[in-house]
Structures are given as structure tokens and as C-alpha cells.
Amino acid sequence: xxxxxxxxxxxxxxxxxxxxxxxxxxxxxxxxxxxxxxxxxxxxxxxxxxxxxxxxxxxxxxxxxxxxxxxxxxxxxxxxxxxxxxxxxxxxxxxxxxxxxxxxxxxxxxxxxxxxxxxxxxxxxxxxxxxxxxxxxxxxxxxxxxxxxxxxxxxxxxxxxxxxxxxxxxxxxxxxxxxxxxxxxxxxxxxxxxxxxxxxxxxxxxxxxxxxxxxxxxxxxxxxxxxxxxxxxxxxxxxxxxxxxxxxxxxxxxxxxxxxxxxxxxxxx
Length: 269
Known about the structure:
5 helices; 21% helix; alpha+beta; five-stranded antiparallel β-sheet
């Protein structure tokens, strides 16, 4: 009787596993992902003869597009195929979850006409040099859509304007800052008439780059950030998702498969 019930339980698990597998979209080489229309170089067919498999630079999961790195994936909010630039949306503003923008883009070409900056809040120990300071945070365009009560609590900010001079080892805790925002602006907007926008700009103008950028990843002290390392060494890419709730790891379907195996073991006992 026990084996009979276990057999039917196994059938149920296998059926559920099949349904989940059938409901998951085939995202091996999609031509679209949510609001994004994917174009070369993000299609597998466009990377057959190139040294840089840029189709591995992005990941489409549940119709959400992500930028892949060797430490995880980060949500993408915009792709500009004309300037060959993508924007990583703002995420995890607490200093406890800091990932340096320099670490994300190190070794990659600089985005054309865009400057990445780092906005730091409530720094109680600003002893290190800061390019520019801003004391009226609510007027910064990048914060206009933030919660007003949250903004009112941020009485001061500091700006790292040139991230090319920011060491990858820098952390907001070095200055005892409570929060941060990754922001970018147009390089021609010297007077900041359009202000900063939330996010980090990443260039994917790589295929014809000379010298080969991947050579930096072979040097002990080479300029090879987590984004470039994922492009040059695809097996090192990590697909965990950085989100407001922390790190999300895929595994629902695997869990069900393991449960089915567990039932098989019970039957054989």
C-alpha cells in the first residue's frame, strides 16, 4: 500500500515538473525580452566568428533583462544600440550591499558622452578627497522620484564625479556613509541643467577593440572588472540576481526534481 501511494506521489511530482518545464519560456537565444528588442551583438548568431561572445553579456530571465558579471547579474533599464551603451538600473542603496561601479565596468571602453558618478549620503567621516559636494539633495534630479520622507532624512550628499579615479576597493563605509546611489550624466552637461540620472552606464563597443581587452584579465593587476571577466571567461559568469531583497538564486525546478528523486528512493526501500 505504501509503495502504491509513493508511486502515485512520484507521478504527481513528475507531472508538476513537466508542467513547469513547459511553462518556462525558451530563452537560449531570444529576440526579445520584456520591453527590450534584442539585436546584434546580443544574438548568438552574431557572435559565431567573433572573439567576444557578447550574447553572454546579458541574461533574459522571466522576461527581465540582466547584465551578467562574475559576481552575479544586475537589472538593465535601457539599451542604446546607436551608442552601444546599456544602463544598469539603480538597486540596493544600502552601504551594506555596495558593489563599486568601477568594479562593474573596469576594463570596458568608456561610454560615449556619459559620465558615471557615485552619490553618497550622510557621510560622517568625509576625510578623503571628493570632486564635488552637494548639500541640497532633494534638488538632484536623480532623487525626484524617491520617497519624500526618505529624502528629507538625507541632509547632505557627496559626489564622486570621476569614477576613473575611484579605486575598486573603495567602500562607502570608508567615509561612514549611510546610503549611496549610482548615477550618470551627459558629459556635455557641465552646468548640470539636466542633472543626474539613476543607474550606471556600461559600453558594449567591444568586438573591434584593439588591443584585445581580454588580455587584461590574464594580468595579475590588469584592468579586468567583473563585467569584462564574464565576457572573456564565460564559465566564470554567475547568474544570481542582485535585488532589493538581497540575492535571489534560481532553484525552484531543481528542488522539485530533487523531491522526485527522493520519492524514488523511498519506493526502492
